[in-house]
């Protein structure tokens, strides 16, 4: 997951994000209190707020991306292009209602790693949590809650990974990954739920 859902249909936006990175480096050494606007000869434009909490990027075709940072890290990226609106939220954590599945009992949230991504093609929700239980217990918890399930186990001398694939009763695709590094007491739980919008 990440920026791919936003940029795969629009190569020009990739160039503009590179421009944004350059502007950020320039601004990092200063303490501007007013909005800063930078444009290049191709017509790409970047606007950064005085507090650096909001960056707006527009390419030469009028596609627009806005990045707003959150108070505790993470933030929201919104992209408007000819495909419609796409949005990614990270660093805020997700709820059981977002997932449509319960959290693993006793697990600890890792909100900085969780995210929600919505594009014209569908929606993805990723919940990242940790537990001291073994991966098999995590898979055993989620497996009865899904249908059409398959389980794969991988591992070596340093780690063990179990992956559960299945669907909810509403036909949402689910992938549960439980990873345990043997030099750690924790098992990381990644639950990804995907809703693909039907094509007309």
Task: List key phrases describing it.
single chain, alpha+beta, TATA-Binding Protein
Describe what you observe in this structure:
The chain has two domains: 1-83, no CATH class; 93-200, TATA-Binding Protein (2-Layer Sandwich). It contains four helices and 13 strands. The protein has helices at 4-7, 11-28, 96-99, 135-142, and strands at 36-39, 45-48, 54-58, 64-69, 75-81, 84-90, 108-109, 115-119, 122-131, 147-155, 159-167, 173-181, 187-196. Strands 1, 2, 3, 4, 5, 6, 7, 8, 9, 10, 11, 12 and 13 form a 13-stranded antiparallel beta sheet that branches. A hairpin with a 5-residue loop joins strand 3 (54-58) and strand 4 (64-69). The longest helix is centred in the N-terminal third of the chain and has 18 residues, at 11-28. The protein is elongated and about 55 Å long. The two termini are 25 Å apart.
Quick gist of this model?
Helices cover 17% and strands 44% of the residues. The chain is of the alpha+beta class and 200 residues long.
Percentage of residues in strands: 35-45%
Look at the structure and give the CATH class of the largest domain. Answer: Alpha Beta
Cα radius of gyration in angstroms:
20 Å
Shape descriptor: elongated
- The overall average pLDDT, rounded, is 80
CATH topology of the largest domain: TATA-Binding Protein
Main beta-sheet annotation: 13 strands, antiparallel
How many strand elements? 13
**Number of domain modules:** 2
